[in-house]
Here is the input.
Amino acid sequence: MHVKWMTIIGGVLGSMLIGAASAAAEERFVDLQHSKWAEDGIEYMAKRGTVAGYGNGIFKPQAQVTRAQAVTFMVRELYPDQLQKEVEGTIYADVPTTHPFHREIAIAAKNGLASGFPNGTFRPDAPLSRAETAAFLTRAYSLAEGNEPARWTDTDMHWAAAPILIMSSNGLVGGYSDATFRPNQSVTRAEYAVFMARVIRFEREAAIRTQDWDKLISYMTVSEQVGQMLMPDIRQWNGKATTTVNEGLKRTIHDQDLGGLILFDKNIVDVKQLTTFTHHLQREAGDIPLFLSIDQEGGVIKRIPGGTNLPGQMALGATGDTALAEAAGQLTGEELKALGLQINFAPVLDINSNPDNPIIGIRSFGSNADLVSRLGIATIQGLQQSGVMAAVKHFPGHGDTKVDSHLGMPVLTHNRERLDAVELKPFRAAIENGVEMIMTAHIAFPAIDNEYVTSLKDGERVPIPATLSKKVLTGLLRGELGYEGLIISDAFTMNAIAEHFGENKSVERAVSAGVDIILMPKDSATAHQALVNAVNNGMIADETIHASVKRILEMKSKYGLFERSESLSHKLAQLNGIIGSKEHRAVEQTIAERAVTVLNSREGVLPDPIKQGDRVVIVAAEQEQAKQLEKQLLQAANNLSLKTEISLVGQGKTNEMLQAISKANYVILASYQFRNVASQFGWSDYQTLINVMNKNEQRYTLLSLGNPYETIYLQDVRSGIAVYGKQEPNTSAGIKVLLGQLKPEGKLPVQTD
Here is the structure.
């Protein structure tokens, strides 16, 4: 008897142990060529970590699945956590604790997945029948009878008639052409994997249809859950810009179960290509669609070629008009939605109270908290009305900094009273008015969190930035401010995070702090695995992940991502009527023209005018910018017989500039200061020219194209206007003012004294 039992065990180990070994990682099988019909189901279940092969890529799809294997697959799928705990021996006489699958069989018995026979045996090595398959799966998933016709001539009197009917009526199993089901026929490994895959997908579809997100999450693997929390960029693959769904992108989406992507100008050729790209991305995503996002603030931060760019947020700030801000948000949203994008990382709610801020500047509405709040709320509402989510930034406020968080770690040292009165005010207003996504700032706020850690960059002690701070995100944002929407980090490629904290630790810490979505992890595969490991080893609680994923799924549903998509041909056909439409361009022009602001005037009202027959010298830092101004000037003043000349500001060019302006009747002195510290900008050449023009009593206008802080650093400017951007709508409006064709009505939205 002992010899016989050892023979059985040997056979079990030889034929099953490898095939039912731990399926922790997806396997690639090489022996499915004769089972193509089952390939998708097998690979789906292997990726879930439910089924496994025999090593070396062998799955043996035509081999019979045993009762023990079937139970093992179900336990791995439904109760993986119980496999990590001690279990008592089974109650079955033929499943001793030495049996390779005694743990799985014991767990299955405990949870009512499978039962034994009247004689006290389980028959673990017996082939599983089609009837038993139906019984096992209907017990495991509590399925109800469906609507499809499912009557077989050989099942009415069978003990498994009820589960067979349930499976068949839901289209999860089929019969044969002779109207039989053949309930006692054994099932192959391929068939069983397919049946399980069908049931899981069926249940997921039902959860999505009923918007039961808790149920859907219960059917998502840890990999799928944390994948929803990642939003990498996809700018290049194999050294080429990613503008189509290439093989590398497919692998990234599927291997990491990604929940979203951010697109940049490298991903965009034109609007038709972009629409086609986003359409194909969603087709690649599976049953949970992707969040596709972009930075389309308007003004200096733009991505869409041919789209309505808008003059930028500070131009809107100069108008002070909430109706225009709402219109700007709405038209931006309409264009993004038509292109297949659902999230716009805008508006910027930072209050640019520091002229030396090197990164916000004209991206802000201004330096007044109330103005930023009013225009921010209006822009958010406009975007939301068009069906695009507004993701406001950068919480708790990046406006009063002198360091660009792309390059280093800014620290804001204001006390809590100041933060409440200024930086937090627009975010509080946005929360009260229903904002649904907030982007964190990689900035330290010691008044809220004074924790310091050792930097990986240089071993120095550095403060924790808001993105990694539980006190800021969970305590302040969710707790005190009552925010219930999505929290997304700023890019993890930025030095404030990347240099100091390391990819794995920073990703883990951000999620623990309260971040729902990690934007642009430096290495998305590494970030994904770090989160999987953190969940599996208990460093991040399941509840934390589930809460984030549920918020993500709810928002994807709210913005229609689970609804059936229109055809690509329909999407492409409607582009011309939306992208850069006449109505949208009219709003763009209105904002630009209403924004023009007089900085200085001899008479206190208007800048120096350009007159008939003037020789106009255009001084600018860039040839392209000067030519744009020249072209617009000549087009707008075609009846004034103007003569024009271009002169460039730059090191060693002072004499050339002075010689050029000496022959001018009028000088347009274009100044563009952005992405640098204003106090360190090269103002000396501009001051030299202004001094000479003042001495010669020449007509001129300092044309501020960027941050409008020139009057802080330049003395005795007698004529100056600000247009808050160097884009064509902005400069065109400025030219019209200089020609007397437009009255400047803008109000400077920042303090310069």
